[in-house]
Amino acid sequence: MSVSIWLKSFFGSQNTSENNLNLSEHERTIDKNTQAEQIHYNENLVNNLKEDHQKLLFLYGSIVESGSKFQYAQILEKLQQFKKTFNIQLYSKNVKLYAYLEQSLKEEIEEFKKIRIFRREMRNLETEINKFLNTWIDIDLSSHNIQEFSADLREIGQVLVKRIESEENLLYPIYAKAA
Fold first, then answer.
1. Helices (runs of H) and strands (runs of E) counted in the chain
2. Given a cut of 80, is residue 177 above it in pLDDT?
3. Does pLDDT of 24 surpass 60?
4. How far apart are CA 36 and CA 40, in angstroms?
5. How many Å apart are CA 104 and CA 162, to the nearest integer?
């Protein structure tokens, strides 16, 4: 950062966008690289993500149970909880897990490619799960569509289990090895 920019920021320049415009391309690149390098290995991350998986499986089971009892209001509530938990985990995974792996494996071309392919496959599964959630959260469940919902729910259960097994058996060991 140039001295003039530092002085302006220190003494309270009113125009922060002016400060950003005065940064050279090189200074902006250094800043971006420094931010990217600040991702550190988190020894608790895998355990936290596995706990999230258990929460998701529990919520899935409670949705199935509510469906079998035709408790439509509870199904909606649990779908919303599932969506929130699922998307919080996705965010955490993208920011902490994938970013760390891609950063730490960028010199190991084959491992890096595996992570990119795996991430793409997981995104396809995530899209499928979110599409299901968005569809059924917006539809009024009733005796007219509960069978269709139950069939879709079974399919999503299979997708969820595939995703969890893949992450825990393939992805998390790579993360531990990259530490």
1. 9, 0
2. yes
3. no
4. 10
5. 26
The answer to whether 29 touches 55, Cβ cutoff 8 Å, is no
Higher per-residue confidence, 169 vs 31: 169
* Cα–Cα distance list, 175 to 36, 85, 115, 169 (Å): 17, 22, 10, 11
Question: pTM, whole model, 2 decimals?
Answer: 0.77
Contact between 141 and 63 (Cβ < 8 Å): no
Q: And the tokens for 36?
A: 């990217």
For 4-18, 31-45, 123-137, which range has the lowest pLDDT when averaged over its residues?
Answer: 4-18
Q: Is residue 90 predicted with pLDDT exceeding 90?
A: yes
CA–CA separation, 127 and 129 (whole Å): 5
The CA distance from 81 to 62, in Å, is 11
Rounded to an integer, what distance in angstroms lies between the CA atom of residue 88 and that of residue 91?
5
Spatial separation of the C-alpha atoms in residues 64 and 58, rounded to whole Å: 10
Selection from 20, 34, 176, 37 nearest residue 106 by Cα: 37
The crossing angle, in degrees rounded to 10, of helices 45-68 and 146-166 is 160
